[in-house]
Design goal:
Structural class: alpha/beta
CATH class: Alpha Beta
Shape: elongated
Helix content: 40-55%
Number of strands: 10
Number of helices: 11
CATH topology: Rossmann fold
Strand content: 15-25%
CATH superfamily: P-loop containing nucleotide triphosphate hydrolases
Strand order of the largest sheet: 1-8-9-10
Distance between the termini: 22 Å
């Protein structure tokens, strides 16, 4: 899940996870470092970065991924000497190197995700769905391009092998897919189009564009004209508000039509709501279930 900052990626990640959990699927949402935006949406307290997935409510699990922990896990899988990795990473210069070196930080996150995909329980994959709440567009593209960049830097060795294995996951359209989140506004839609194009150029599958906070003008034919006539008789704050909302909804509809034309597929509309937090996540999950039925 990615898109321009502030379009509601975390909320929609939580809602999609809730839909999957309601269907009896084992689902984990992944976030990248920092305070979790998803946990409070489902009523959970703070989730510590780098820890195994933990339940946060409504049948959903959450993992906050740490790039350094991902790199340490990869090296530990290759270097079977107890304690050596932790000892090496206690050296500040080593830690700074792995955070600054091209593609290393991003590869740490991607490796942590790949380990979740490989986890098994009772002879089957532990997780039916791994939903990754990626950063905003620019950072997300950089992260997803990391294995391609890494292959150009490392011509052989274990890091090259890691880049190849992650690339294979990303371009496997049966295993991995992207959802781009946008708003019915000019700038977010432009960024969604650009982002989708970049992802496809890398061979990634863009499964859907989710248009969040779509407003319905709620006016029947002729009602707007009637409101505008009434407005001319003096200041009418409620009438002015209704007219402004209808015009905003009309602009949003036109912007989404352009998005559909250029994407050659209709975006999935998510209605605007006043609810916040868990109530909002539940409402969006209900809407997504109705749309899928």
């Amino acid at each position: 899940m990615t898109g321009k900052g502030g379009v509601g990626k975390s909320t929609l990640s939580a809602a999609l996870a809730l839909v999957a959990a309601r269907a009896g699927k084992r689902v984990v949402v992944c976030e990248i470092e920092g305070p979790s935006a998803v946990a409070p949406l489902l009523g959970a307290a703070r989730v510590t970065s780098g820890e195994p997935p933990r339940p946060i409510g409504e049948g959903v699990h959450l993992a906050v991924l740490c790039p350094e922990e991902g790199i340490k896990s990869y090296l530990a899988d290759k270097i079977h000497v107890p304690g050596i990795i932790d000892l090496v990473f206690k050296q500040p210069v080593v830690s700074r190197f792995f955070r600054a070196a091209p593609a290393f930080s991003e590869m740490g996150v991607l490796y942590a995700i790949s380990r979740l995909l490989d986890e098994r329980e009772g002879g089957r994959p532990k997780w039916d769905h791994v939903i990754v709440d990626l950063p905003a567009s620019g950072h997300a593209v950089g992260m997803l391009e990391a294995p391609f960049v890494g292959k150009r830097i490392f011509v052989a060795g274990p890091v090259r092998a890691l880049c190849e294995s992650i690339e294979k996951i990303l371009v496997d359209h049966e295993l991995a897919t992207c959802a781009v989140v946008t708003l019915p506004e000019e700038l977010p839609v432009n960024e969604a189009l650009e982002l989708s194009d970049k992802l496809r150029q890398r061979g990634l599958r863009v499964e859907a564009v989710l248009a969040n906070a779509v407003e319905d003008d709620g006016l029947a034919p002729g009602e707007r004209e009637a409101l505008e006539r009434a407005q001319r008789h003096g200041e009418q704050p409620l009438i002015e508000g209704a007219i402004a909302a209808a015009r905003r909804a009309a602009r949003g509809s036109e912007t989404l039509r352009r998005l559909a034309d250029e994407m050659r597929t209709a975006p999935v509309p998510i209605s605007y709501r006043l609810e916040r937090g868990r109530a909002l996540v539940r409402e969006i999950a209900d809407e997504l279930e109705r749309a899928a039925s």
